[in-house]
């Protein structure tokens, strides 16, 4: 569970199918409170840009009591040219610093694959992560 205002990442790495030198930094998101008006604007429940805060609070608390918001976190993503709020699965989020660390390791791994195209056994991403960050590597 992340507190409101925490910077998070979710493995959104622009241009990750390009050459690693062209990869942009991971997209940074900011966790919003589940009652934040921005999280509910232009949704099924509130099809307007700025819904009334009291109405949002009522709907958010009702949905939370029904368990429909379980495991979901509203995140304000900053895509440089625009911002967008999406509801993300909490399990798929990680602190932004960890996302950047994993991005650097994946980029180093891809560079290594390009520099050594004939290597028979591919290297593991854990080889490119610091010892204390190896838990970030996916299986």
Give me the secondary-structure topology.
Elements: E1 7-9, E2 28-31, H1 37-40, H2 53-66, E3 72-78, E4 83-89, E5 94-95, H3 96-115
Antiparallel strand pairs: 1-2, 1-5, 2-3, 3-4
Features:
five-stranded antiparallel beta sheet; alpha+beta; 139 residues; 17% strand; elongated; 5 strands; single chain
Description:
With 139 residues, this protein is of the alpha+beta class. The protein is 27% helix and 17% strand. The protein contains three helices and five strands, in the order E-E-H-H-E-E-E-H. It has a five-stranded antiparallel sheet with strand order 4-3-2-1-5, with helices on one face. Strand 3 and strand 4 form a beta hairpin. It is elongated, with a radius of gyration of 19 Å. The two termini are 22 Å apart. 16% of the residues are buried.
Give the neighbour order of strands across the main sheet. 4-3-2-1-5
Order of helix and strand elements from N to C terminus: EEHHEEEH
First-residue to last-residue Cα separation: 22 Å
Strand percentage lies at 15-25%
Q: What class, by secondary structure content?
A: alpha+beta
Helix proportion: 25-40%
User: What composes the largest sheet?
Assistant: 5 strands, antiparallel
Mean pLDDT: 91
Computed Rg: 19 Å
Per DSSP, the total helix count is 3
Q: What is the total tally of β strands?
A: 5
General form = elongated
Summarize the structure.
The protein has 139 residues and is α+β, with helices and mostly antiparallel strands. The protein has three helices and five strands, in the order E-E-H-H-E-E-E-H.
